[in-house]
Specification:
Helices cover about 60% and strands about 5% of the residues. By secondary structure, the protein is of the alpha/beta class. The chain folds into two domains: about 325 residues, no CATH class; about 120 residues, D-Maltodextrin-Binding Protein, domain 2. The strands form two sheets. Strands 2-1-5-7-6 form a five-stranded mixed β-sheet. A hairpin with a 2-residue loop joins strand 6 and strand 7. Helix 1 packs parallel to helix 4 and helix 10 packs antiparallel against helix 11. Keywords: Cell membrane, Glycosyltransferase, Membrane, Transferase, Transmembrane, Transmembrane helix. It is a multi-pass membrane protein. It comes from Thermomonospora curvata (strain ATCC 19995 / DSM 43183 / JCM 3096 / KCTC 9072 / NBRC 15933 / NCIMB 10081 / Henssen B9).
Length: about 500
């Protein structure tokens, strides 16, 4: 029996085996990244711990991660309590593996098995996927829910009208987990309208789209007004990056996949079929050129949503994580691009392999660079552990890190950040910043002052601690992060010994 393009169990088994290989590769590439808990992870886990404590004991929230709602921090903190940060990171990896599998199913539904495999292989190796696969963040579960919403939208051409309502909960939950996902909701709605229009006509599909928008809007409005959950990125989170900096960062991280997606859109608009498989008897007619152009534009254009918002906010700080939302939806068109580059009967296989290897090499190098930007705080925490207790007042850069590592011995409110310090001195003056730091040290308000880190302290601040015999240096801890090096200094108030330890 010769080759056939008709579906078969053998084709399904081979395709699923290749998908499992891609997922295994994605997992190994993410797990190769190893570093201690970052300040962002510590902030999220501290926030989740406080939410859990409030549920159990009614305690107040003293620190909040405004980048996400309370849904993911609570789940991550619960997993962290059982399995440590490795367990919380494993949850992120499982979410992204699920997103890759859902993306494969979406592309297979819209195109074919070959495009689906190229789609999964492309998304599995880009920098945001590899980085977030071993990082505690609300982005992985939100990306998974967005992929699930896209997969549900891709089946609306052969589904009854009420199935459009299944898209809304998945899309809304993505936003409630991470408000960044709201930037991709227009692409999900347009995808649903286009797919539904192919099977049910443009008139009905527009009605379905209006219903989907209404349900999404009502759900998110209820969450924002009734519960107070954020449903959009924080507009106050602005930066000072120049537009060229934002564009350069976005292009370096996702530009190659976006270029492949644009090529895929051009190829798909020009010709629907691969030119390899004969038309099957039960196959539907090819969609119109206008429909193909619209689908390619919606999916590939989704990659521009996050960089566009970053341009408005003048910040590129989180692009290495947030670009994953747009690349998720652009990946199917990148899969089409690779498939068309290879051509029928694998005519130009070497070109497709070269494009994917370029994606792989960029993804590995960039994820490693971003993953080792922070230092291992555990030696500092070990040095602080015998010096702290439940009654002291402590000043430290990145206070979320000692609060996380010393959570059983101190509370978060005992730690203050020199950069955000507000202090009322003995004369009743309320001071901020460096003035607050100098007054607090002069009046020996803090029992321990930690200096150092990747950013050197203000010389005036260090001089205030070092001089005057108010504090003595208990320990000095050097460290290095890549080509950068520095040190932490732990200064203890002169007239205090080690404080009483809280129960372990």
């Amino acid at each position: 029996m010769g080759w056939t393009a008709a579906p078969s169990r053998r084709r399904d088994r081979v395709s699923r085996a290749l998908l499992l290989t891609i997922l295994l590769m994605q997992a190994l590439l993410s797990l190769r990244l190893r570093n201690a808990v970052s300040p962002d992870e510590a902030l999220l886990l501290n926030t989740g711990r406080q939410y859990l404590d409030r549920m159990r004991e009614g305690t107040a929230i003293t620190e909040a991660d405004t980048a996400s709602s309370y849904l993911h921090p609570m789940v991550a903190a619960a997993i962290d309590g059982l399995a440590g940060p490795a367990g919380a990171r494993l949850f992120s990896l499982l979410c992204l593996l699920g997103a890759t599998a859902a993306l494969y199913s979406l592309a297979r539904r819209l195109f074919n098995e070959r495009v689906a495999l190229f789609t999964a292989a492309s998304f599995a190796v880009v920098e945001p996927t590899l980085f977030l696969g071993n990082f505690v963040s609300p982005d992985p579960p939100a990306i998974f829910m967005l992929a699930l919403a896209g997969r549900l939208a891709a089946r609306l051409d052969r589904s009854p009208a009420w199935h459009v309502l299944l898209v809304a909960p998945a899309a809304a939950l993505a936003v409630l987990i991470s408000p960044t996902a709201v930037l991709l909701l227009p692409a999900v709605v347009l995808l649903a309208v286009l797919v539904a229009g192919r099977g049910h006509g443009p008139g009905r599909s527009l009605g379905w789209g209006a219903g989907l928008v209404a349900v999404l809007g009502a759900t998110l409005a209820a969450a924002a007004v009734g519960v107070g959950m954020p449903v959009a990125p924080d507009p106050a989170a602005t930066g000072t990056d120049a537009p060229q900096t934002v564009l350069r960062t976005a292009a370096s991280l996702g530009g190659l996949l976006f270029l492949l997606a644009v090529l895929g859109t051009i190829f798909y608009t020009h010709r629907d079929r691969m030119g390899e498989a004969p038309i099957l008897p039960d196959e539907r007619p090819s969609p119109s050129r206008a429909w193909r152009l619209a689908l390619g534009t919606v999916l590939s254009g989704a990659a521009l949503a996050v960089p566009g918002y970053a341009l408005l906010q003048h910040t590129s700080a989180d692009l290495h994580r947030q670009l994953g939302y747009g690349l998720l939806l652009a990946a199917p068109m990148a899969g089409v691009g690779i498939a068309r580059i290879i051509g029928p009967h694998f005519r130009n296989l070497q070109l497709g392999i070269a494009a994917w290897i370029a994606l792989l090499l960029f993804g590995m190098a960039q994820s490693e660079r971003f993953y080792y930007e922070w230092m291992d705080y555990r030696p500092v925490a070990d040095a602080l552990r015998p010096l702290v207790g439940p009654q002291g007042r402590y000043l430290s850069p990145s206070p979320e890190l000692p609060a996380y590592y010393l959570g059983s011995r101190t509370e978060r409110e005992q730690w203050a950040d020199p950069q955000e310090l507000t202090y009322t001195d003995r004369r009743g003056r309320t001071l901020q910043g460096t003035a607050a730091f100098l007054a607090a040290v002069r009046e020996r308000h803090f029992d321990i002052v930690v200096l150092g880190g990747l950013t050197a302290p203000d010389p005036r601040q260090r001089a205030a601690v070092v001089t005057g015999r108010r504090y003595y240096m208990a320990v000095e801890i050097p460290f290095s992060v890549g080509s950068r090096s520095g040190r932490y200094e732990i200064w203890v108030k002169q007239d205090t010994g080690p404080p009483a330890r809280s129960p372990s």
